[in-house]
Amino acid sequence: MEVRARAPGKIILAGEHAVVHGSTAMAAAIDLYTYVSLRFPTPADNDDTLKLNLKDMDLEFSWPVGRIKEAFPELGSFNVSSPASCSLEVTKAIAALVEEQNIPEVKIGLASGVSAFLWLYISIHGCKPAKATVTSELPLGSGLGSSAALCVALSAALLSLSDSVKLDFDHQGWQIFGDSELDLVNKWAFEGEKIIHGKPSGIDNTVSTYGNMIKFRSGELTLIKTNMPLKMLITNTKVGRNTKALVASVSERTLRHPTAMAAVFNAVDSISNEMATIIQSPVSDDLSITEKEEKLEELMEMNQGLLQCMGVSHASIETVLRTTLKFKLSSKLTGAGGGGCVLTLLPTLLSGTVVDKVIADLESCGFQCLIAGIGGKGMEISFSGSS
């Protein structure tokens, strides 16, 4: 039997950077996915290795299960239903296994993702031979939650073939987990994210697991269900950014101008809360979809202006803003800024011809354009082959 899991990426709709200083932020799932397929070999396959195939990168890694047993002599001590953090000793053992794979220098950034795979696999399935294949619609390192989507899809696939989760293997098509099982997926995914990022907020994996939207402030996450369809053009500037440095620069500006920056953060808080109210309000109320979209566009423009006040915009982002403004469309950066991705709201009544022209203009600047629905489904799973 083969299991296939998919988990969505995410965007920050409002509140990035300000959330570090106590403001509310809004995150949402996007219908661009990372897929993980997993199968255990049959006795006839005579295969005693653990394989990881990163199909988009044309890379495959493999470890004999004997080598894994040698690296983890206390393999039976993991409790699948109670996710734990990776110890320093285990981290070193995983690092040695990854190092043996001789990852090309130009792709060395993948090492942390391979480490997360090993930790999740070994914690949940021990040293069984298997083959996992990963594909993704999400650009790496662009602030769209690609690492969290990987960890969520991996955790879901691994748990679905463990004794900790009960699923209908004969169900046709995609199916979702129950609440307690989603919680377990989310906890394991968070542990994988910790291996990749050190101290993640937990926002990305939570959005990827549960879908829809999340409102968060001071470490508290609240799941939100959208009552209006939203579509965004996501422009990947392909400009890398240093998130830690950008966060630090906002903090330094706050120290220099505490009163002014407090006003900026308060304004961002108001924008996030108003955005959440609009998105959650019933479709049948006084405001039509068009009127709601117009309000969201204004809020996005205001949020972008405040992000510029924080000093986290970039020449590439400004190019996207000018290009979309020519077509009377509203945009804002999403995530850390300093490059990365820009969101542009695509109103319901906007013609496809206009969208094509916008994309052509942006792509002529060397940017990558993706269209995504916002606030959709979270992690899902499907099975194929006999059980």
From TrEMBL:
Source domain of life: Eukaryota
Signal peptide as annotated in the record: none
Involved pathway(s): Isoprenoid biosynthesis; isopentenyl diphosphate biosynthesis via mevalonate pathway; isopentenyl diphosphate from (R)-mevalonate: step 1/3
Gene Ontology biological-process annotations: sterol biosynthetic process
Residue ranges annotated for the GHMP kinase N-terminal domain, each copy included: 125-211
All residue ranges annotated as the GHMP kinase C-terminal domain in the record: 294-347
PROSITE patterns to which the protein is assigned, alphabetical: GHMP_KINASES_ATP
Coiled-coil features, chain-numbered ranges: none
InterPro entries linked: GHMP_kinase_C_dom (IPR013750), GHMP_kinase_C_sf (IPR036554), GHMP_kinase_N_dom (IPR006204), GHMP_knse_ATP-bd_CS (IPR006203), Mev_gal_kin (IPR006205), Ribosomal_Su5_D2-typ_SF (IPR020568), Ribsml_uS5_D2-typ_fold_subgr (IPR014721)
Catalytic reactions of this protein: (R)-mevalonate + ATP = (R)-5-phosphomevalonate + ADP + H(+)
EC nos: 2.7.1.36
Keywords: ATP-binding, Cytoplasm, Kinase, Lipid biosynthesis, Lipid metabolism, Magnesium, Metal-binding, Nucleotide-binding, Steroid biosynthesis, Steroid metabolism, Sterol biosynthesis, Sterol metabolism, Transferase
Entry annotated with the keyword ATP-binding: yes
GO cellular component terms given for this protein: cytoplasm
Annotated Gene3D superfamilies: 3.30.230.10, GHMP kinase, C-terminal domain
One Gene Ontology molecular-function label: ATP binding
Compartment(s) of residence: Cytoplasm
Family indicated by similarity: Belongs to the GHMP kinase family. Mevalonate kinase subfamily.
Name by which UniProt lists this protein: Mevalonate kinase
Lineage: Eukaryota, Viridiplantae, Streptophyta, Embryophyta, Tracheophyta
